[in-house]
Amino acid sequence: MAYNLLKGKKGIIFGALDENSIAWKTALRVKEEGGAFTLSNAPIAMRLGKINELAQQCNSEVIPADATSEQDLNNLFTKSMEVLGGKIDFVLHSIGQSPNIRKGREYGDLNYEWYLKTIDISALSFHKVMQSAEKLDAMNEWGSIVALSYIAAQRNYPDYTDMAQAKAMLESIARSYGARFAKLKKVRVNTISQSPTKTTAGAGISGFDVFYDFAQMMSPLGNATAEECANYIVAMFSDFTRMVTMQNLMHDGGFSSSGITQDLIDRLTK
Predict the structure, then answer these.
(1) Residue 209 CB: number of other CB atoms within 10 A?
(2) Is residue 45 left, alpha or beta, with left meaning phi > 0 and alpha meaning psi from -120 to 50?
(3) pLDDT in tens, 66-119
(4) What residues pair up with 267 in beta bridges, in sequence order?
(5) How far apart are CA 5 and CA 234, in angstroms?
(6) Count: domains in the chain
(7) 42/62 Cα distance (integer angstroms)
(8) Is 85 inside any structural domain?
(9) Quick check: is 50 in a domain?
(10) Cβ atoms < 10 Å from Cβ of 92
(11) Which residues contact 168 (CB under 8 A, 6 or more apart)?
(12) Which of 121, 166, 267, 269 is the most exposed place for a label (fewest CB within 10 A)?
């Protein structure tokens, strides 16, 4: 069901790889709610994914950009404003990659060049996105910028390795730039800490199925799905959340506030 929550709003959505991704489902929901947007991803991700299919469904233009490149980001914001006919109201940063995780390196045997790449892609890119938007004066007043995070920013998850530090940095950047953007343009900046979600990226993490099943047992409402996360993002882009900023918002079915649940007790005592 649609409510025209984003009627007349314009934005940029990063990171829609395929139909399983949160960014993909967010794009579909934003379209349903009346929003217009450009889609962006790194050139290699575009070759591997299906973003052009999504663009056809949403009547959106795809503008390739490496989110670690200031030049690419400046071009993205400039072209997006041209295509959309005005400044930007919302941005979704759904970008994350760890070469160390992808190549199976343990936390005590990290390649530090890859570690820095993880930070650059998964966290520093968020700052670069917002700095480009600021310098180009690309954001409308009362705009909303959201990035996707995970609770490994606060807690240890063995196979999440250097992505845990990247997510912690991502959340810190949201607070710091949120304070700045609020004063400059009344733009709000938040992160959403999502349940483990069965996306192509999530499935690449060793032990993901165990993560997922444990979180399901520890969450009174169960794990939040990608579709449910997309709905939350739409709410964060809407005018109903104008006074929410600099927050790390837990969207996890209650996982982050649970000590132990009856489901887990039952499982352990069988």
Answers:
(1) 12
(2) alpha
(3) 999 999 999 999 999 999 999 999 999 999 999 999 999 999 999 999 999 999
(4) none
(5) 8
(6) 1
(7) 11
(8) yes
(9) yes
(10) 28
(11) 153, 154
(12) 269
Buried b (16+ CB within 10 A) or exposed e, 227-239: ebbbbbbbebbbe
Check: CB of residue 256 under 8 Å from CB of residue 151.
Answer: yes
- Contact in structure between 90 and 27 (CB atoms under 8 Å): no
| Residue 161, token pair as written in the block | 């390795």
Which amino acid is located at 55 in the chain?
A
For residue 192, pLDDT beyond 90: yes
- Classify residue 2: in a domain, yes or no: no
Q: Is the entire prediction scored with pTM above 0.70? A: yes
Domain, as residue range, for 154: 10-268
Assigned domain for 240 exists: yes
Distance CA 36, CA 59 (A): 9
Reduce the secondary structure of 196-237 to three states and give it as a string: CCCCCCHHHCCCHHHHHHHHHHHCCCCCCCHHHHHHHHHHHH
The position carrying tokens 């670069």 is 128
CATH code, 83: 3.40.50.720
